[in-house]
């Protein structure tokens, strides 16, 4: 029996362009990225940080080409799973689907652990000289995750409304703070950060660029809302592009303001500081406004945890609806029309993983372990999807060499460089994180192979439920 006929569908036509835009930006988590990833980029690019972000804009444009092109033809709650299963090859798509699911799941774990175990205690300690205790992050993380789960459970509409509002406020605060710093500096503003001089050449800028690209890479998560979106072929690709343009411009502005605010020649100490962005804000706009920023950074990280919970739950829902995951995850709440069992299960499991990582190796190292494992799976999933794009459009007899071969090849090169500089040489806990991601990927490949030997018919139907929903949506329009 076709699972679609049993009512196993999400609520349709509830997400227009602006809510989708909010989901894209929320996954990027602008304020959270400034607090975390931008500091990592500054460790390499130092005083040339704004130049690294300008170059990264072109890198991200190449990065998002693959989901942008896919979403013109294929949409569904499975995202990259559906893209590659329907477009390229079922087994290929299932493997990519679970890899991307693993990556988004690990985003939840590292986001909640960083927020509650690293960022909040670090800020309180620096500004108020108060140690909130070694294990206080555990009850904070518990409340944090419960709130995220409740919002996700109640439906995609409240989730996206929150994400859009939070994203708009974040962008406004970053622009206001950056402009205030630039105005306060007056004649001390300089073009030097837009040159490779402070980094002593383009090599260091290039490494910083890799991390800058990663800080803006989350927008592609919006593709898992294809079943709930209004006019998905139009609005999803539009949300992908506009979110990239907005965040790219804001990150260039913010990176410049923080660089000149900290001091171009002093940027070597930026990464080592506990909360460098807040320190610069406190210096130029005062403690009250800095505390407002602190509150909205937490809010940003909250939205940045909610977005991957929505994304990962819909991916496993889609795969389970096709018989490629536990059937219980394909259940839809009768009122809220959300994959509620998947949401609750993923939330509980992410809490457990974050808790264990934080207790065993501490919140800081735990965060590094979780974010590295997520990055490894994300990079590999995107690389494989770049190949899947060419096969898909060749099958459709619409292959365009530039859009479907050359640009994805460039994206693959950038991602390969990103993997190299992110993971080589491996060091604790990065080496264990990479091992975790590799073991998960190998286990997935073996499981798909073994399952396919007995259930080839189910494998061959991968992504078909999403396509049935998509075809029905367009028939009604």
Task: Explain how this protein is built.
- The protein has 477 residues and is mainly α.
- The chain has one domain (12-476): Amino acid/polyamine transporter I, CATH 1.20.1740.10.
- It has 19 helices and no strands.
- The chain has helices at residues 17-28, 30-35, 37-45, 49-63, 65-70, 80-87, 90-128, 137-153, 156-185, 202-215, 232-262, 276-285, 287-321, 340-361, 363-395, 401-423, 430-454, 456-459, 464-476.
- The chain is globular.
- The chain starts with 16 loop residues before the first helix and ends with a helix.
- The model has no long low-confidence stretch (mean pLDDT 89).
For this structure, what is the CATH class?
A: Mainly Alpha
Q: Kindly, what is the distance between the CA atoms of the first and last residues, rounded to a whole number of angstroms?
A: 26 Å
What letter string, H or E per element, gives the SSE order? HHHHHHHHHHHHHHHHHHH
Number of domains: 1
Structural class based on helices, strands and sheet pairing:
mainly alpha
Percent of residues in β-strands: under 5%
CATH homologous superfamily placement? Amino acid/polyamine transporter I
Summed up, the helix count is: 19
Radius of gyration, in angstroms, nearest whole number? 22 Å
CATH architecture: Up-down Bundle
Strand runs, count: 0
* Overall 3D shape: globular
Largest beta-sheet details = none
Runs in which pLDDT lies below 50 for 5 or more consecutive residues are: none
């Amino acid at each position: 029996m076709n699972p679609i006929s049993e009512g196993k569908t999400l609520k349709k036509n509830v997400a227009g362009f602006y809510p989708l835009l909010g989901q894209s930006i929320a996954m990027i988590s602008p304020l959270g990225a400034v607090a975390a990833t931008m500091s990592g980029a500054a460790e390499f690019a130092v005083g040339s940080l704004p130049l690294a972000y300008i170059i990264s804009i072109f890198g991200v444009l190449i990065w998002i080409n693959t989901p942008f092109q896919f979403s013109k033809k294929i949409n569904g709650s499975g995202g990259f799973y559906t893209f590659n299963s329907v477009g390229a090859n079922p087994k290929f798509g299932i493997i990519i689907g679970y890899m991307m699911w693993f990556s988004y799941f690990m985003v939840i774990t590292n986001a909640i652990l960083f927020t509650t175990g690293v960022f909040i205690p670090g800020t309180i300690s620096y500004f108020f000289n108060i140690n909130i205790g070694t294990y206080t992050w555990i009850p904070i993380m518990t409340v944090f995750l419960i709130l995220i789960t409740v919002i996700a459970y109640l439906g995609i509409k409240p989730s996206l409304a929150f994400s859009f509002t939070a994203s708009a406020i974040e962008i406004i605060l970053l622009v206001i703070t950056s402009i205030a710093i630039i105005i306060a500096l007056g004649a001390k503003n300089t073009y030097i950060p837009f040159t490779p001089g402070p980094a002593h050449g383009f090599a260091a800028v290039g490494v910083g660029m890799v991390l800058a690209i990663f800080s803006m890479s989350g927008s592609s998560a919006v593709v898992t809302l294809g079943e709930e979106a209004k006019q998905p072929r139009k609005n999803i690709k539009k949300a992908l592009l506009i979110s990239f343009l907005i965040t790219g411009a804001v990150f260039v502005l913010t990176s410049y303001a923080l660089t000149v605010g900290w001091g171009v020649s002093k940027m070597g100490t930026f990464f080592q500081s506990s909360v460098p962005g807040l320190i610069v804000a406190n210096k130029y706009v005062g403690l009250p406004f800095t505390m407002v920023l602190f509150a909205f950074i937490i809010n940003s990280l909250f939205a940045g945890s909610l977005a991957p919970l929505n994304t990962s739950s819909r991916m496993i829902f889609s795969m389970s609806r096709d018989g490629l995951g536990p059937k219980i995850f394909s259940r839809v709440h009768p009122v809220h029309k959300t994959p509620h069992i998947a949401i609750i299960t993923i939330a509980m499991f992410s809490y457990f993983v974050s808790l264990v990582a934080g207790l065993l190796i501490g919140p800081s190292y735990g965060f590094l372990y979780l974010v590295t494992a997520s990055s490894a799976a994300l990079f590999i999933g995107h690389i494989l999807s770049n190949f899947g794009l060419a096969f898909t459009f060749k099958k459709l007899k619409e292959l365009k060499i530039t859009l479907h071969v050359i640009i994805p090849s460039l994206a693959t090169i950038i991602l390969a460089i990103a993997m190299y500089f992110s993971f080589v040489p491996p060091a604790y806990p990065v080496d264990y994180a990479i091992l975790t991601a590799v073991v998960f990927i190998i286990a997935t490949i073996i499981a798909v192979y073994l399952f396919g030997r007995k259930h080839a018919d189910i494998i061959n139907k991968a992504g078909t439920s999403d396509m049935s929903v998509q075809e029905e949506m367009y028939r009604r329009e």
